Amino acid sequence: MGKIYDRIDERLRAFIVAQPMFFVATAPADGHVNVSPKGYADTFAVLDDRTVGYLDLTGSGAETIAHLRENGRITVMFCSFGRTPNILRLYGTGRVVTPGSPQWPDLARHFPVDTPGSRAIIVVAVDRIADSCGYGVPYMEPAGDRDMLKDWAARKTPEKLSAYQAEKNATSIDGLPALDGLDEVT
């Protein structure tokens, strides 16, 4: 059944890479818990055996960014929808790296940062790695990436995308600062 690991070894890395999607959970000290599905190919990377990251794209909200700015707590979950059941959770502390940050160039090499709507890279220092059976997860086959979000962002000029982010991504649903006050994003 469930096991706790000291690090992300090659077997766990292979499992992570094989999953077509992952889920991100964060919560403010007082407010709404948020769970976000993610899944574009090549937007998640194992940076080392205790650090992971993912490319964060412009969306209808910015809860993860707001929650990380407030307290840093984050859990990333992968679950197998294939023949071998498994759920892997990476618990840790996250930080937001924006295109204007000095850390951006080094991290950006792990991701397709030219993806329309790229607004940040979320980096997670993992402090607990645990799996569980996944017996209750259904079998499902991915049909492919849904390109609607990238296509939507690609149709916007940089000015219109910035205006959207300023209107929709400045604060969380609980009023916490998200992109507001961070370096300019693209």
TrEMBL record:
* Limits of the Pyridoxamine 5'-phosphate oxidase N-terminal domain: 8-131
Superkingdom is Bacteria
Which InterPro entries does the protein's record reference? Pyridox_Oxase_N (IPR011576), Split_barrel_FMN-bd (IPR012349)
The record's listing under SUPFAM superfamilies reads:
FMN-binding split barrel (SSF50475)
**Protein's recorded name:** Pyridoxamine 5'-phosphate oxidase family protein
What is the native source organism of this protein?
Actinomadura miaoliensis
